């Protein structure tokens, strides 16, 4: 079966819980917010589960289990699951049967809210085997779940510790400097510290550039040629790292800025906004103007308006540089918040790292090639963009579930941010307000699947998808993808998808095949 990956070398004898916990140990420091988020989820799960008729000790038992299979600490006095064999070995964690999964999921897939075109795939994260499929090889529009493929591909080719540079270099003519966009979609003009755990700061870059220019002036080697006055420069900006059309195929849209190698605060008209918000027409020019203003604040005289230009060949004469947070953090942010700007930039970095053009076409080809090289059967998948906004994206449920299973492979710890970045049902990101009926939410109680399901959502008009991981009632880690197209009620479709994932979380599904 094409879902089993011979290249991963994974042993079926390793339990799902053990394998993932051991793998997550390698990326425990993927982001300082991650451990804090887990702590908050655990506390909230305990608080939500306490209610009329519920004993406090029952709530205490539930809270650790919410995230324990995904790497949270075990109860005090107990060995963490997965260390020295954990509390339960592989032999005692049974694999769901196809018949059991069919009985649990089949009726839910018939929900009319899912529309006429739905599909599903469930894969055992330990073995890579397909456990259940319903039209699992039929390709359809993934919407934002394609970000899972983008995340896995960029981590595969660049690694989780890679940081994206933004640089200022001396120009070819005296007194000219060039701001070189490296393709960092999280570059901000709002911060100004030197904390490497924070997004790269345009203000910090201006301060360090001014310091370098003043030092060159004092040495008589640049700026005003040692005249003792304020350094005087002209500013150009280089966006050549990304090529091809900058406007996404969906056109001008508050969901995404033009895709360019230089932008600050994602090109938002109001830098303080988040989520969907109006964007400037030319993010690169806007960022360059902001940088010029910041240089002036630092005592550098910038003559005229910044103009497009190219840095001298060879990369000589670097004056200052800032770098993004590690790629692991960018991936987690992208998945948690479904950030389209980050997704498109990371897809282009995948292309650049593999020798392809940093364009929409080059990015799509590179993501496909990276996953194919990692052992994923694309089964005809077409990746048209990195974000999933393009309806030309065409992948199957089996493909998405396979990528998630790949990310759970203990032999590929560099891919773990694909899993740790997934929103948690009922707690974070795009799943914060899902997985609970109206009565449960009104009463402040958690859904039975809250904390157990980690998944990426996907939503376009008529398209609703959900793909992620879940620990079933027996403790087995499963990767799943549920996709539907032709829906007319997005709220109803989302609720139906949530019920499918909840069924996996609450079912051992071990009926005889």
From TrEMBL:
It holds the Pfam family Peptidase_S13. It comes from the Bacteria. Residues 35-44 have a biased composition (Basic and acidic residues). GO terms for molecular function: carboxypeptidase activity. Residues 33-56, 75-99 are annotated as: Disordered. InterPro entries: Beta-lactam/transpept-like, Peptidase_S13. Keywords: Carboxypeptidase, Hydrolase, Protease. Belongs to the peptidase S13 family. PANTHER family: D-ALANYL-D-ALANINE CARBOXYPEPTIDASE, PENICILLIN-SENSITIVE CARBOXYPEPTIDASE A. This is D-alanyl-D-alanine carboxypeptidase/D-alanyl-D-alanine-endopeptidase. It comes from Streptomyces thermolineatus. The gene is dacB.
């Amino acid at each position: 079966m094409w879902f089993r990956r011979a290249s991963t070398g994974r042993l079926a004898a390793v339990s799902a819980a053990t394998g993932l916990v051991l793998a997550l140990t390698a990326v425990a420091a993927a982001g300082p917010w991650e451990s804090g988020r887990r702590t908050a989820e655990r506390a909230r799960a305990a608080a939500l589960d306490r209610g009329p008729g519920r004993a406090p000790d029952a709530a205490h038992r539930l809270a650790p289990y919410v995230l324990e299979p995904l790497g949270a600490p075990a109860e005090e006095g107990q060995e963490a699951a997965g260390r020295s064999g954990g509390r339960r070995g592989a032999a005692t964690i049974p694999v769901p049967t196809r018949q059991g999964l069919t009985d649990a999921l089949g009726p839910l897939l018939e929900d009319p809210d899912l529309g006429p075109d739905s599909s599903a795939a469930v894969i055992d994260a330990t073995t890579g085997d397909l456990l259940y499929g319903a039209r699992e090889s039929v390709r359809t529009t993934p919407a934002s779940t394609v970000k899972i493929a983008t995340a896995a591909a960029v981590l595969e080719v660049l690694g989780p510790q890679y940081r994206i540079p933004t640089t200022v270099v001396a120009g070819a003519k005296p007194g000219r400097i060039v701001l070189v966009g490296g393709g960092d979609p999280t570059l901000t003009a709002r911060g100004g510290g030197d904390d490497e755990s924070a997004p790269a700061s345009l203000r910090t870059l201006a301060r360090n550039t001014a310091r370098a220019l003043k030092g060159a002036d004092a040495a008589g080697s640049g700026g005003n040629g040692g005249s003792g006055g304020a350094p005087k420069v002209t500013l150009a900006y280089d966006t050549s790292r990304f090529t091809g059309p900058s406007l996404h195929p969906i056109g001008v849209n508050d969901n995404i800025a033009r895709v360019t190698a230089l932008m600050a605060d994602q090109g938002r008209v109001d830098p303080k906004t988040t989520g969907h918000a109006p964007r400037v027409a030319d993010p690169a020019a806007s960022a360059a103007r902001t940088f010029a203003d910041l240089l002036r604040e630092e005592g550098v005289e910038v003559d005229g308006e910044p103009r497009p230009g190219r840095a001298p060949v060879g990369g000589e004469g670097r004056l200052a540089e800032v770098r993004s947070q590690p790629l692991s953090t960018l991936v987690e942010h992208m998945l948690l918040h479904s950030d389209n700007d980050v997704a498109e930039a990371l897809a282009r970095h995948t292309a650049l790292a593999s020798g392809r053009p940093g364009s929409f076409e080059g990015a799509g080809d590179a993501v496909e090639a990276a996953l194919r090289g990692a052992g994923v059967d694309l089964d005809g998948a077409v990746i048209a963009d990195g974000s999933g906004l393009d309806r030309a994206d065409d992948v199957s449920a089996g493909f998405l579930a396979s990528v998630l299973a790949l990310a759970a492979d203990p032999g590929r710890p560099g891919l773990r941010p694909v899993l740790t970045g997934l929103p948690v049902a009922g707690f974070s990101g795009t799943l914060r307000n899902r997985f609970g009926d109206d009565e449960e939410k009104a009463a402040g109680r958690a859904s039975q699947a809250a904390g157990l399901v980690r998944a990426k959502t996907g939503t376009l008009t008529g398209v609703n998808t959900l793909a992620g991981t879940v620990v079933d009632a027996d403790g087995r880690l499963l990767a799943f993808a549920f996709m539907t197209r032709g829906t007319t009620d997005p709220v109803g479709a989302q609720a139906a998808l949530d019920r499918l994932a909840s069924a996996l979380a609450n079912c051992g599904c071990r009926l005889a095949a």
